[in-house]
Amino acid sequence: MSRQAYRAALVHMLDDPCRAPAAEACAYHTDGLLVVEDGHVAAFGAYEDLAPALPAGTPVEALSGRLITPGFVDAHTHYPQTDVIAAWGSQLLGWLNNHTFPAEQAFADRAHADEAAGFFLDQLLRNGATTALVFCTVHKTSVEALFDAALARNMRLIAGKVLMDRNAPPALCDTVETGRADTEALIRAWRGRGRLGYAVTPRFAVTSSEAQLAMAGEVAAAHPDVLVHTHMSENLDEVARVGELFPGHRDYLDVYQRFGLLTDRSVFAHCVHTSEDALRRMVGAGAAAAFCPSSNLLLGSGLFSLRQACACGVTVGLGTDVGAGSSFSLLHMMGEAYKVGQLRGEGLDPLHAFYLATLAGARALKLDDKVGNLAPGKEADFLVLDLAATPLLARRMAAAKTLADKLFVLSILADDRVVERAYLAGALAHARDGDLRR
Ligand code: GUN
Ligand code: ZN
């Protein structure tokens, strides 16, 4: 058995701070102890409470000035879009045609996909994202490349092959039959391997025929362990296009619902232009939304109302949505979510933002029995954050007295330099200084 303890400030969320009193929703210890045994959390609490009971001989590493948090959960992103980050000029539909579809065609080539998958996962880790729900491309090999790379790193990751049989370049289109065969084959080949999971991934209603959406719903129904992952109501032109392509439906969500894609395992990215009625139907089904503030701002898609989604009871995770989103950092996304809230006049409490980036994401991905916080028994995916990583951060952090102050400063000033270490299942997977021996 391996056992290691870390002494530092510790924080994690135990519940949604909008639904539970702060003292129950969050556990924070300025002098804490995290004990990891065989890749799982054995204990999390105040040093003075836990130290006396530590088994003799347990190594304790003191990390003063550091904050240990759970690894972040990226509830929506695209690994083939790293190279379209920072593309100038268009809103969603033009951006897909001008930038994204050309870049995704390169993923027919396994060597290209391997290189991009490794770079992407390393970016996740150096930014503190230890779990993600990921779009691949239409190519089966793109999924194999990402799963191979995640397996090698022992990451908890969910991904899927894009389904897309119309309104896209021919080189990026599959068919109902090949889409079904590839998806089924990938589920069979990868289910239960390492910490991987599969998501049936129709890109969005614009690029799938009715027959393909129906097939996706059938495959999801046949495999209760897989998620459904798609986009919905991101941009007004997109919403109008869906209305033209699928006349006679109550709304965008109704299209997915009709084809069996509104489930308790569905994650809908964006939901910016989603009515209260649709949000309530999502809650009724147990589906989740992924809020992607950086992407929504860059593409000019609109301002997601977190307040409305929370009032309706929707589970909301936080997504980078790379490459429409411009950063891999969930800390940065917490800051972007705050700014969206400011533009809406809603505000966003720092603890709520931290919940979105951790436990809420795990809940959205149905992984909260495994990750999302550092409760005993969970997988030990955690971060060591350096609160003085840059001169400006050190200076501003010195004046941040409360936990909320510190989290807010991080959300506005932090980048990948803050993530001193990232651990996956108790093993060091990223070290800012490059030394992976600890
Ligand atoms: N809607 C359909 N495809 C995409 C995509 O790749 N990125 C974003 N942001 N929205 C989409
Ligand atoms: Zn997306």
Ordered list of secondary-structure elements with their pairings:
Elements: E1 3-13, H1 22-25, E2 26-37, E3 40-46, H2 47-50, E4 60-70, E5 72-78, H3 92-105, H4 110-126, E6 129-135, H5 140-153, E7 156-160, E8 162-163, H6 176-190, E9 196-202, H7 210-222, E10 227-232, H8 236-245, H9 252-258, E11 266-270, H10 276-285, E12 288-291, H11 293-298, H12 306-312, E13 315-318, H13 330-344, H14 350-364, E14 382-386, H15 391-398, H16 403-413, E15 419-424, E16 427-431
Parallel strand pairs: 1-4, 5-6, 6-7, 7-9, 8-9, 9-10, 10-11, 11-12, 12-13
Antiparallel strand pairs: 1-2, 2-3, 4-14, 14-15, 15-16
The chain binds guanine and zinc ion (ZN).
Q: For the residues shown, what is the average pLDDT?
A: 97
**Class of the largest domain in CATH?**
Alpha Beta
> Helicity range of the residues?
25-40%
Secondary structure tally: strands: 16
**What portion of residues belong to β-strands?**
15-25%
Poorly predicted segments: none
Shape: globular
Instruction: List the bound ligands.
Output: guanine, zinc ion
Going by helix content, strand content and strand pairing, the class is alpha/beta
Query: The biggest beta sheet, please?
Result: 9 strands, parallel
Question: What is the C-alpha radius of gyration, as a whole number of Å?
Answer: 21 Å
Report the end-to-end length measured between terminal Cα atoms: 17 Å
- Architecture of the largest domain in CATH? Alpha-Beta Barrel
**Can you identify the CATH superfamily of the largest domain?**
Metal-dependent hydrolases
Number of helical runs?
16
User: What name does the CATH topology of the largest domain carry?
Assistant: TIM Barrel
